[in-house]
Write the structure tokens for this entry.
Amino acid sequence: MTRAVWVKADDTVGDWDDRRARITAALEAGADWVLVDEDDVERVRELGDINVAAFRTDGNVTLVDDIDEAEDETGDAATRADAIVVGKNGEGDATIDLPEDFSGSADLSTLRRDGDFDRGAYVRILGTEYERFAETAAEEADHTIVIGDDWTIIPLENLIARIGDETDLVAGVTSAEEAKTAFETLEIGSDAVLLDADDPDEIRKTVEVRDEAARESLDLESAEVLDIERAGSADRVCVDTGTLLEHDEGMLVGSMARGLVFVHGETAESPYVASRPFRVNAGAVHAYVRTPDGGTKYLSELQSGDEVQVVDLEGNTREAIVGRVKIEQRPMFRIALETESGDRVETLLQNAETIKVASSAGRKAVTDLESGDEILLYYEDTARHFGEAVEESIIEK
């Protein structure tokens, strides 16, 4: 599941300086959305590139699909919101009493209007009747934002169970800790959180919680080295990331997608070259590398701006942006391995002492590997077609 962080920055936050501070913190932290009032949409666009949702309070919000009209009036798209949100100063926030019959709801009528744009509902959960109102709104809304004034986990559990598949459920939170709980509730969690907090550190921590919630945790295993031999020269790929790697991090690469070897980043000091804590010397151009979506790419396909998966020795993963790919002809080793299930997999790695794998004895240079050593890999008994796992019989050797 893809998670998202929204940051609340409407007029309840304070004046424009207060709102701008929140929006700037959201941009710098990597939040996905800001929720503002209609009059601030253009000013948000001037601050940076982020999805903008605007509260509809007077029926005049300019929408993404109103392109021709907006461009006629302004000459550009600066005043367009990416989504409208209904409920502020209405029934959703209890400014107006809920009707006994929801068919007479003004908020729901607004949501039901035709239009090819994202629509959101904003509902404070003040009782079971507001839970029912949120459920009804979710039938029309792309995003259903639910706010608990005296928040308990039960209303969120109810809403996840009842409307989780119909809409993007956005839970209102005031801290990263609450966001973590929202993402974990019922082991499914909300799709997103709406953070109402001024502290830039809290915004950053909430974005980190989002990233952690979306990441895989892989079961790595040991494989025995059957054979290691010089294999002549090949086009070798170094993957340089736009982020620094930790000492116990690397990438999963291999000649066969079902068995990907853990190769350390070049974070260790060497008497021969300086450390390059952004680099993984990943192997030959034909090899696979694992990506954050659980797929694979050929090393030859990678280019600046792509994402690759970084993994540590415990199988914890995160994404990293490729900053540069270096392909050069270098002498290689062919390494043959036997997995715990008895399968044989192979890969090519450069013949150089700076390339390290994770052995049972610790970090080890490929130039020191011997038959009988055990090294870490990720094994997945599945075939791949264009990087996607498929139920198909494929022979690789």
About this structure: The chain has two domains: 4-214, 220-389. The helical segments are 16-29, 41-47, 67-74, 106-111, 128-138, 153-163, 176-184, 200-214. The longest helix spans residues 200-214.
